[in-house]
Amino acid sequence: MAIIAIDLGGTRIKTGVVKNGEVEHLFIKEIAPNKPLSTYIPFIKERVAYLKKELNGEIKGLGIAFPGLVDTDKNSIIDTSGKYEDAPEFDLATWVKQELGLAVKIENDARLACLGEWQYGAGNKSPDMVMFMLGTGIGTSAIIDNKLLRGKHYQAGVLGGHFIMDYHNTKDVCSCGKYGCLESIASTWRVDQLAKAHHLYSKSNLTKLNKINIASIFSIENETDELAKHLREHCMYVWALGIVNLIHAYDPSVVVVGGGVMHSESVIMPFLKDIIKNRAWCPSGLPEIVTSAYPDTAALIGIEVLFKN
């Protein structure tokens, strides 16, 4: 039976139906960042009703990928970092059961992306795998000895985007409310601010864009645009060091790098691999560094794996 899957992203909500690792009826809704979850409840209800009708009632359940800390035993949201701030107070699981009449599972989005890539994608069922997700923020997850890492407080593995990279920084607040995190210096939500504060901004093609994000700095391939080039290299260097920290922490055999920006993998992957090779201490050999097979839908696919497991 099929699973209805919802990925609550920072700038987009994705909905679809997953069966045997395939996503059907994919629908992507662009959203305004920092809006409460309650804003999108009518949309979720409408999409689920549509999908239930399309599937003629043959549904195993509904899975939700959430960008924050999730208590998977209680099926509740513990905390969030700048996205859907009302979610911890909103009993989403009970609402789904009462209003939609479906069994529901909620899990951190990076963990679900990790599961999807592990079962059906680039992870190739490796017993030891790390996921590095580039979305609105930066998400991470780990599978150790074929088990998804969660930890006592459900935060094991998923806070790689909040490794402290710039301990001098006490002015640029991260989405988590702290300072100096990897996400706060090299993520989609930060790059717009970095670009506009740079002395090269007035000379850059980035001035033609209403909003600057990670995708846009990679879309400007002209090497004469010094700011776009600088921001690309800055972000990739920070990402590479984040991956090095994950390698040192979890000792994986494979690292999967995902997210929509990996459509620019021909630029990103050689850069990452070169930095990782030079900065990681791995006397027994480096892990394989690979691109996500499902850069846009891995979390949706992982929802099906969550139900199976």
Automatic annotation (TrEMBL):
Protein name per its UniProtKB record: Glucokinase
Q: Name one Pfam family in it.
A: ROK
Protein family membership = Belongs to the ROK (NagC/XylR) family.
Mind telling me which PANTHER family this protein's record contains? BIFUNCTIONAL UDP-N-ACETYLGLUCOSAMINE 2-EPIMERASE_N-ACETYLMANNOSAMINE KINASE, ROK (REPRESSOR, ORF, KINASE) FAMILY
Per its UniProt entry, which superkingdom is the organism in?
Bacteria
Q: What is the native source organism of this protein?
A: Pedobacter psychrophilus
